[in-house]
Design brief:
Elements: H1 4-12, E1 18-22, H2 23-37, E2 41-45, H3 52-59, E3 64-67, H4 70-79, E4 84-87, H5 94-97, E5 103-106, H6 109-117, E6 122-127, E7 139-140, H7 149-155, E8 163-169, E9 173-174, H8 178-188, E10 195-197, H9 215-226, E11 230-233, H10 237-240, E12 244-256, E13 259-264, H11 273-277, E14 283-286, E15 293-302, E16 311-321, E17 325-328, E18 350-354
Parallel strand pairs: 1-18, 2-3, 2-11, 3-4, 4-5, 5-6, 6-8, 8-10, 10-11, 13-15
Antiparallel strand pairs: 1-12, 7-9, 12-13, 12-17, 14-17, 15-16
């Protein structure tokens, strides 16, 4: 359920659809994560949500930002000159290899050779993609990401005084609980590297928003595994997802072959997450409507797009009427920034921020 302050803000918005970000809630959440991690370095994966207002809150708590393109690099560097940046992502261009950074995550022997060819100095983490079983993951980062042990071995003789090997980077899967991530960390840290970036992948449950990742247990576990070396993580979704809301309204309610549908302003071209992940996006209905509708029965919530894939939530037992306000929760990560904004050329959503 949404808080009273979010509900009041949603009801006061002058237009819909709109994104609403609760900045104090984000600040409180990330501060608690920072405390739980102790001496573990915390970077934010900007790909999850590059909104400048969110980044300004995060900057007060994180050690740096992980960026995966020249665009993300320019965006973050302009906001926070001098802040540590880690440059990741497969398929880096020659121009991206020349970007200033604190660490660069090299994905292949050929990428390392091109980095050496720039003649610039660089501090490198080799991205390892080991053959480790990952059970229960929402997404596994296999295939083209990183390199196997043979690729790492091919890279080792290439390092010298200008391009220096600092350690390993790994990100094997997303959607894992703390015990699963700690088990993977234990296997990955069985090496002689003094610096290891364990990536992100902390589990987020859209089915049970109140269920949160065990940051305290994870921090204690990493401290025990660290053995004096530098450990770094770079979560994205698990930091910002809870602070974001997508606020829209019911424009029509109808039945098709006996099934009830609520048609909402906007759609998955604004909030792609449920269509991408195949889940029901959690929501709260604020009864602002006075039009026709349905009461206490299964209803599917869809957007305005000309595709049957434009679905937010399927067959949820609830009540909905034309004019009701619908507040979709957990819209603070991989939502607006990964959506196909220009499909059908509908108006883009407004953005509003709760600040205190």
């Amino acid at each position: 359920m949404i808080s009273d302050r979010v509900q009041n803000a949603a009801l006061s918005l002058p237009e819909a659809p709109a994104y609403l970000y609760d900045l104090p809630a984000l600040d409180e959440h990330v501060a608690s994560v920072r405390r739980a991690l102790g001496g573990i370095e915390l970077y934010y994966a900007v790909k999850a949500n590059p909104d400048a207002e969110l980044l300004r809150v995060l900057a007060g708590h994180v050690d740096g930002f992980e960026v995966s393109s020249a665009g993300e690099h320019a965006h973050v560097a302009a906001l926070f000159p001098g802040k540590r940046l880690a440059l990741g992502g497969p398929g880096k261009t020659d121009a991206e290899l020349r970007l200033p950074h604190h660490r660069i995550h090299v994905e292949s022997p050929n990428e390392l050779r091109r980095l050496l060819g720039t003649g610039l100095e660089a501090d490198v983490l080799l991205r390892l993609n080991p053959d480790l079983p990952v059970e229960g993951a929402a997404l596994t980062m296999s295939g083209p990401f990183g390199m196997d042990e043979q690729g790492v071995a091919e890279c080792l003789p290439l390092f010298g005084a200008r391009v220096r090997l600092r350690g390993l980077h790994t990100h094997l899967a997303s959607g894992l609980a703390a015990p699963q991530l700690l088990a993977l960390a234990g296997a990955l840290l069985d090496n002689g590297h003094e610096e290891v970036n364990l990536g992100g992948g902390m589990g987020v449950s859209y089915a049970a928003p109140e269920s949160r990742f065990d940051w305290a247990g994870y921090g204690r576990g990493l401290a025990a595994l660290g053995r004096g070396r530098t450990l770094r993580i770079e979560p994205g979704r698990a930091l910002t997802v809870y602070c974001g809301y997508y606020v829209t309204r019911v424009v029509d309610v109808k039945r098709v072959r006996g099934e009830a549908y609520a048609i909402l302003l906007g759609g998955t071209h604004h909030l792609r997450t449920p269509a991408t992940k195949g889940h029901d996006q959690p929501f709260t209905i604020l009864p602002t409507g006075k039009g026709p509708g349905v009461a206490d029965e299964p209803i599917t919530f869809v957007g305005q797009l000309c595709t049957p894939k434009d679905v937010f939530s399927r067959k949820i037992v609830t009540s909905a009427h034309i004019g009701d306000t619908v507040v979709f929760e957990m819209a603070g990560a991989y939502a607006w920034n990964i959506s196909h904004h220009d499909f059908l050329m509908h108006p883009k959503p407004a953005f509003h921020y709760l600040r205190g």
